[in-house]
Amino acid sequence: MTGQTFQPVPARSAPVRLEGPVAWVRSNLFGDWKTSLTTVLMGALLLWYGPQLLNWALFKASWVADAEACRVISGACWGVVTEKYRFIIFGRYPFEEQWRPLVATLLMMALLAASCMRAFWRPWLVLLWIGVLSIFFLLMYGNALGLTKVETDRWGGLPLTLLLATLSIAMAFPIALVVALGRRSSLPAIRTFCTIYVELIRGVPLISVLFMASFMFPLFMPPGFNIDVLIRVLVGITLFSAAYMAEVIRGGLQAIPKGQIEAAATIGLSYWQTQRKIVLPQALAMVVPGIMNNFIAIFKDTSLVTIVSLYELTGALGLALNSDADWRPYKIEGYLFIALIYFAFCFAMSRYSVWVEKQVNKGKAR
Questions:
Q1: Which of 77, 152, 224, 248 is the most exposed place for a label (fewest CB within 10 A)?
Q2: Is residue 206 part of a domain?
């Protein structure tokens, strides 16, 4: 058009990067003045106490299994781990037979890792579980194939922790699923029974359940009939965990719109078809963090079985230190070693939960 002059558009600043480490630091550590102040304060504390912690834990620490040498240093005495690690990891299992719980533990960990991979989600995975668990009990208990018999009260350490946590999780989940569905049942008898079970179990601490399973339950058995303490404890942990997990799953079930259930009924789907194809896939996807939180709690709650004389990781450490006065002053280092093991397993479970969340939410991504 005539009579008009060209006006250039003012230059604009470059767009801010939304990905990469610099963008992550900007949004998570310096997003606003409150976040920036917290970051600065935490950084100052880390700079002040970090070197002292490193000096104690690494530079001035002793790694030699010599209690006399630990008394003259100002750092940590990791020699207690060097000296007692076999007792901590395997508990009271016979020393010369500890290759058996080592192989059993490695097999169990390999099975758990394989079960978390999509490539192994096949029908034969159930057979693999049966086979590995059979080998696990054969190695631990023995009394066959030339292996000496080792009673369950001598099992301990990491193998016992893995066994209790794995079997409790595997058995608690289907029980929780049925109880959650039962609490939403239209049949009063089923709904009342499931409600009483959940409220009764959640009304007492796990220690009470373990105490009842270990000491009170045998009193109700016929004379001469006895159930192994390991089985009783396993049942107690399973029933306790299932009650809590059932409430998590019920929360997911209540989040499903009623219209979807009515739509399924209009096309002729039965109750179980509706639950299996429509309700449960959505409900379980919503509560993945809560379910994984229960799994992590089950893994950590296995430490309570010490009260019934089953010495898992923490109990085995207590036995190792109480039986040797020379190493008793260095229990902090021993418990830090135990905490590192717990953290490794719980962190792996947490990261796997994040991966599962991403997989189930792909359909909602924009």
A1: 224
A2: yes
Domain with 231, as residue range(s), is 78-93+150-364
How many domains does the chain contain in total?
A: 1
Decide if 2 is inside a domain: no
Per-residue confidence (pLDDT) for residue 249, from 0 to 100:
92
| Four-CA torsion 260, 261, 267, 270, nearest 10 degrees | 150
Contact of 238 with 168, CB cutoff 8 Å? yes
Question: 183-195 pLDDT, tens per residue?
Answer: 988 888 999 999 9
pLDDT in tens, 96-130: 999 999 999 999 999 999 998 888 888 899 999 99
> In the chain, which residues have pLDDT < 50?
none
Whether 43 maps to a domain, the answer reads no
